[in-house]
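cron nightly-structures :: item 1 of 1
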Amino acid sequence: MDDATLLDGSLEDAITALRSRSIRASELTELSLQRIAQRDPELNAFIAVTADAAREQARAADARGTLAGAPLALKDLFDVSGVPTTAGSVLLAANVAREDSAIARRLFDAGAVNLGKTNLHEWAFGVTTDNPHFGPARNPWALDRIPGGSSGGSAAALIAGLCFGSVGSDTGGSIRIPAALCGIVGLKPTYGRASLRGAVPLAWSLDHAGPMARTVRDAAILLQTIAAYDPDDPGSTDVPADDYLADIESGVRGLRIGVVRGRFFGRLNADEQPGRDVGNALAAAADVFAGEGARVEDAELPRADELRNTQTVIIGTEAAAYHRERIAAHRDAYGSDVARRIDLGSTRSGVEYAVARRVRDELRRAYASALEAWDALLLPTTPITAPLREGQDALAAAATLTAYTSPFNLTGLPAISVPCGFDARGLPIGLQLVARPWAEARLLRVARAYERATSWHERRPGQAQG
């Protein structure tokens, strides 16, 4: 296996190579650092590359733990001891962490090597990763397109072969949107599954942490590593994690999969590209599942008209609460789109927020109940593929690109995005699968069955598509 094949391959294959000593962690880390030096100047996927620390970790982690010294990267809102955590803001440029976040510690204890901190939309409050302080992250499929956000740097780094996995955060779609726009796998687990201690928050009651990877099995490996109850995180829930690889190859024969229809799809314009391409990819994916033996039927989601406003009130109000003192003192240091969203959140009354929280609780019950009838729901991750960066209105982009992802932050359900095709411009399309609470193992099994039956996840930017 040559260097390029290894760097563009799976985390699982890298772990196998490391354990067999066909390559050492220090060698693989050097190859990754060289790839970053070659490609990141145009992608701007990293805010910081911690090369010396990575080399030191690689020497200590060689073939040790479940990750065996595999090089990863963390979104720059997770603390890593001795490294600044910026959250994409110049205000935190000197915010050097004193200790590792809970997720970083679990990854490092499992033998991961951290290559650095990836770029993100400022304060994780947006979907373009057009960062006014650290520069825009670019989509490796088309440099004039956004990679999505807010975990855009992680997605760009993964599809470009700069790292073997990442952990992102997702408050309205920030893992799944860039996964879809860059052609990788992104998993938002059930709310409370992975600890957020040591991570800069956006909205406490909607924030999730989850894995980003190039394959479904890689996402399962990373989730296995980070999924754990943390009594020091108020949002963490004491539900035992499953063995996410045990049943992952069991297929979907006899499983019931619902294709989401109806009022939920107000933003999917099937009469125009790329909406038509997304709709066609969804229909083709449903056919794949049927061909694999699943029972595929239409599904209608409850109370769809209440989802967007409830999510908007909660995310804006909680973000405004977190930023209230900082933005009052340093308003000029905020990007205009983020400042506008915080300003809007600050106008919400306590009554509005209380009503939204109550509706959110009702919706979580309603959606958990609705999912009891299905092993998974199937829908697009985003209604469009990656839009152009120039001329992009960040608020309008957020409204469009979170249309199908944010409902599952609000309801706390596990959701995964997997590659499911390309539009007429050659840009990736993401398929979203959703399961009942705590059913990540079943969700990964369904996603893996689709991935195994297709080859979309094998494509890389710059390859002839044939």
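cron nightly-structures :: done
The mean pLDDT is 96.
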